[in-house]
Amino acid sequence: MDAQNLTYIFVGVTFALYIGIAIWSRAGSTKEFYVAGGGVSPIANGMATAADWMSAASFISMAGIISFLGYDGSVFLMGWTGGYVLLALLLAPYLRKFGKFTVPDFIGDRYYSNTARSVAVFCALIVSFTYIAGQMRGVGVVFSRFLEVDINTGVMIGMIIVLFYAVLGGMKGITYTQVAQYCVLIFAFLVPAIFISIQMTNNPFPMLGMGDTLADGSGTYMLDKLDGLNQELGFNAYTDGSKSMIDVFAITLALMVGTAGLPHVIVRFFTVKRVKDARKSAGYALLFIALLYITAPAVAAFAKLNLMETVNQTEYKQLPTWFNTWEDLGLIAWTDKNQDGKVQYLGPKLDGGPALSSKSPEFTGEIGLSGERLISNASSNANELYVDRDIMVLANPEIANLPNWVIALVAAGCLAAALSTAAGLLLVISSSVSHDLIKKMINPNISDKGELIAARLSAVVAVIVAGYFGINPPGFVAAVVALAFGLAAASFFPAIILGIFYKKMNKEGAIAGMVVGVTTMLLYMVKFRLGWFDETLPDESEWWFGISPEGFGTVAMVLNFVVSIVIMKFTPDPPEDVQEIVENIRIPSGAGGATH
Questions:
Q1: Considering the entire predicted model, what is its pTM?
Q2: Could you write out the DSSP letters of every residue in 300-336?
Q3: To pair with 457 at 20 to 30 A between CA atoms, which of 165, 195, 376, 488?
Q4: How far lies 530's CA from each of 407, 482, 548, in Å?
C-alpha cells in the first residue's frame, strides 16, 4: 500500500481514538474541565505532561534546527530538558499544595490583588498564543504534505479536531487523550530513528549510532563524515559552534526558566491527588521526555548527512520524488543559478555571501530551464537550495528510503505532538478567561454550569485566534516557540519563585516586575524578530549585549527580579495571613496528605 493511503489510515485511526477518549472522559464540572477532577495517577500525568510538553517544536523543529545549526542547536536540548529539573524541584510540589486551578489564580491569591491577577492573565494569553502559533503551523505542515492540502487548510483541519476534544473534555478529556498521544508520538519518533541508525551504522540505538562508525566498512565515524562534508561545502563543522558564549548561556537559561514558568505545563501538576504525586509526575515526565530528547540529536545528524549526500550536485531531473513533493508544497526550493541543471548546496564561506534566507521563498510562478520552481528572494551567493527546517523530521524517512508505513507513522506522531500541546494551551487560554477573569473578577456569583459554558466559549474563540496565528506565524516553529519561553521567563518565573520562597514579596513589587519584564521582552521581540520598528529586520550586530531574541528572556527575567525586589523595599509588607500561607506551602511535614 502506498504512503498516502497508509497515512490516511494511521491518521484516521489515531484521530478516532482521540475523539473517542474525549467523548468517554468529557467534563461535567468546572473541576473536571480545569484540573481533570484532581485524581489523575502520577504515571498517567507524567505521560500526559510529556505529550503536553513535547510539541511540534520538539517533534518536528528541534531536530530540524540541530540539523542546520549543529552544535549551536544544543541550546534547545539543554534548556528544555534542564527546565524540567527546575520545575520538579522548585515549583511543582509547592504550587500543588497551594491548590489553585491556574497560574493567574496562584498569582492573584498569593499577591492578594485583582490587578496582579489581570497582569497574569494578560501574560498567560500572550505566552499561550505565541506558543500555539507554532503548534498550528506544525499541524498545517503535516496536513499539507501527507493529506495533500495547502498549509492553511491543514491548519483549519487541525483547529476543528483539537477544538472538539478540548472543548468537550476539558482537562479531563485532554489528559487521557494526551496519554494516547504520547504513546503515538514517541513510537513514531523512535521507529524511524532506529531504522536509519541500523541502516547507516549497524547500531540499533540512535543516540549511540550517531557516535559510531559508518556501515560502509570505511571505519569513518559518522560525525567525522558529517563535519567533513559540511566543511567541504563551506559551512562550519557540524560539531563546532558559531554562537557567542553569552548568547548560548542566555538562550539556554531563558528556555530553562521559561519551561518552569509555562502555564500549560504548570497546570498539569494541579491534576494529581497529592503533593508527593506532583513530584512523581515530574520525575515520570522527565523520563518520558528524555526518550525523545536523547534521540533528537541523532535524528538531526542522520537527516543532514542523508540530505547532503542525496541532493548536492545531483541532476535535478534525477532527484527522488520526495524532493518534488516537498517542492510543490513550497517547503523546498531550488534556483539553478549557474544553469548546469544540478542542485548546489553550498555554504557562505565559499564566496563570502550570506546564506540563503530561512524565510519562506516567494515563488514567481515560473519554471526554470531545468524544471525547477523559481523563487524571487534567492540570495546573491552560490547556494541554490532552500530547505524549510520544519520538514527535516518529516522528510527523513523518505530521504532514507524507509517503508511507507514508517512515513505514515511519522505523520501520525507529528500530529499527536502538535495537537496535544495545542489542546493544553487552549485550556490555559479558556480557563484564564472563564475562571480568572469572569469567575474571579467580573461575576463571582456565576454558577458552575455558567462558568463551564464560558470556558467552552472561550476555547472556541481561542482556537480561531490560534488558527490565524498558525496561518501567519512570525517564523518557523521552534523559533516561535522559543519566543514563548522568553515571554514566560520574563513574566511568570520571577513572580512564582518569589511568591513561593520570599514571604515578604508584595503585590506592588510583583506587578511592577511582571509588567516591566514582559514589556521589555515584547519590545525586543517585535524589534529584532518581527522588525516592526524598522524598514528592514535589524541584523545580529545590533542585538543588545550580543543576545538573540530567543535568549533575551534571560535579561528581561533579571530585570523583573530587580524591579520586583526594589519596589518591594519601598512598599508595605504583605498581610500576615498571606505570609502564613507562604510559610505553610513550604512545610514538608504532612505535605503528602494535602488534598486541596
A1: 0.79
A2: HHHHHHHHHHHHTT-BGGGS-HHHHHHHHTTSEEE--
A3: 488
A4: 34, 14, 13
